[in-house]
TrEMBL record:
Keywords: Ion transport, Membrane, Transmembrane, Transmembrane helix, Transport. InterPro entries: Cation/H_exchanger_TM, CPA2_transporter, Na+/solute_symporter_sf. It is a multi-pass membrane protein. It comes from Amycolatopsis ultiminotia. The keyword Transmembrane applies. Its main location: membrane. This is Cation/H+ exchanger transmembrane domain-containing protein.
Length: 426
């Protein structure tokens, strides 16, 4: 690599990092999750530069070699993020086991899953019936349908946890129930995603191999978790958290490569390593290790979306229409928000809490983007449908805060009217 190319690569890296920081700042000002700003800023930079400076200008700002470096760093960020996602799922699941509400959680999880599956099937059926290769792609129908369904059933546990913390709802009924339901949903979604990706080869043996790799990975993760929970290892983590974080990151990257070799996605490998991390809530050696990895991932993940914005969304997207985007958005909201509300009501929750649970479960965030990326990388989702899913994920996540605020105002008005209603002699 020449000196000029090194400088241009460094310039592209600095620009991408600035975009991520700027996106986070805009999101905070708009009272939105920071990930929305990171993703949006990264995705629009490619089309913006293309519109202003043309293809030659885009190649000058983001040369091919620079994009290769950004892609590697961005994928490393995703690997680190997935370790954190899996660890947070374990923490949330452990918390649910300690504070089990049994039937209510099951009904809410089922309510948020079954209608969302129906919505996903309806959307997949619509795309197959359209027969547009720009939206349908060339993947086998079973793989395509399963991945589309998972795209509409995902709830982003990390973003949900952040929203609950920002609004002081972690200990509330709606907070604990929505988190527990989201964890159960995601626990079902990951194996289904593995099957869908395995079916992308067009052979049932691919799905069986995916299940075998996933099952073997879970066994290894459970054994590794026991080893990592020992006092000797935990004590070393407490003294050298950054060394352990680096070793864990290397292990996650290696596991990602192994799963990729078996025809799955690197996402599942990193996720399995995250499941091996002992669950700790806020303190302790492993919480410090995962916290350090989370800080690194927050800086690197935006690079991934810059690469997507330059490579995917500056090319032809076929007959992408707003009708398809609106259909995806409406079905996604109806399945998760409506299903979550219905499940909460069946579980005995009052309407006010049920509405909030539905809104919270409609949060998709970066976990949804990772599912979309898995389908896109496996060739199941074409670029136009990938973009449709990104718009849907960003919109549903951005809706969470305003909808919760609207519900707060509606409930406040009702509380003010309640005393006057009781005093009315009529």
């Amino acid at each position: 690599m020449t000196g000029e190319l090194v400088l241009r690569t460094c310039g592209a890296l600095v620009l991408a990092l600035l975009l991520g920081a700027g996106g986070r700042w805009v999101a905070r000002v708009a009272r939105q999750p920071e990930v929305i700003g990171e993703i949006t800023g990264g995705l629009i930079i490619g089309p913006v530069v293309l519109a202003v400076a043309g293809r030659s200008g885009l190649a000058a700002v983001f040369p091919h070699e620079a994009l290769a470096v950004l892609k590697i760093l961005g994928e490393l960020g995703l690997v680190l993020f997935l370790v954190r996602v899996a660890q947070e799922l374990r923490v949330a699941f452990a918390s649910r086991a300690e504070n089990s509400t049994g039937r209510t959680v099951g009904l809410i999880a089922g309510g948020a899953f079954v209608p969302a599956v129906a919505a996903g099937l309806a959307f997949a059926g619509y795309l197959v019936a359209q027969g547009d290769p720009a939206l349908r792609g060339t993947a086998p129908t079973p793989a395509f349908v399963l991945v589309v369904v998972i795209c509409l059933t995902t709830t982003a546990v990390p973003v949900l946890a952040r929203i609950l913390a920002d609004r002081n709802l972690l200990g509330s009924a709606e907070g604990s129930l929505s988190m527990a339901a989201a964890v159960l949903n995601d626990a079902v979604n990951w194996p289904i995603l593995a099957i869908g990706l395995g079916l992308a080869s067009g052979r049932m043996s691919g799905a069986l191999m995916a299940l075998a790799v996933l099952g073997g990975g879970l066994v290894v993760a459970a054994g590794l978790s026991r080893v990592l929970s020992t006092g000797v290892v935990s004590g070393f983590c407490l003294r050298r958290p950054w060394i352990v974080a680096v070793l864990l990151a290397v292990l996650a990257c290696a596991a990602a490569e192994v799963t990729d070799e078996f025809g799955l996605t690197t996402i599942l490998g990193a996720f399995l390593v995250g499941l091996a991390v002992p669950p700790e809530r806020t303190a302790g050696p492993w919480a410090r290790v995962v916290g350090g990895m989370a800080k690194a991932s927050s800086k690197l993940v935006p690079l991934f979306f810059v690469v997507a914005g330059v490579t995917v969304f500056t090319g032809p997207l076929g007959s992408l229409s707003w009708v398809t985007i609106v259909a995806a958005l409406v079905l996604a909201v109806a399945g998760k928000l409506g299903g979550g509300y219905l499940g909460a009501r069946l579980g005995g929750q009052p309407p006010a809490i049920a509405r909030r649970i539905g809104v919270l479960l409609n949060t998709r965030g970066l976990t949804e983007i990772i599912v979309l990326q898995a389908g896109f990388a496996a060739g199941v989702l074409p670029p136009a449908l990938y973009l449709t899913g990104l718009v849907m994920a960003l919109a549903t996540t951005a809706l969470t805060g305003p909808l919760l605020g609207l519900l707060d105002r509606v409930d406040a008005v009702r509380r003010r009217k309640a005393p006057s209603a009781r005093e009315d002699p009529a």
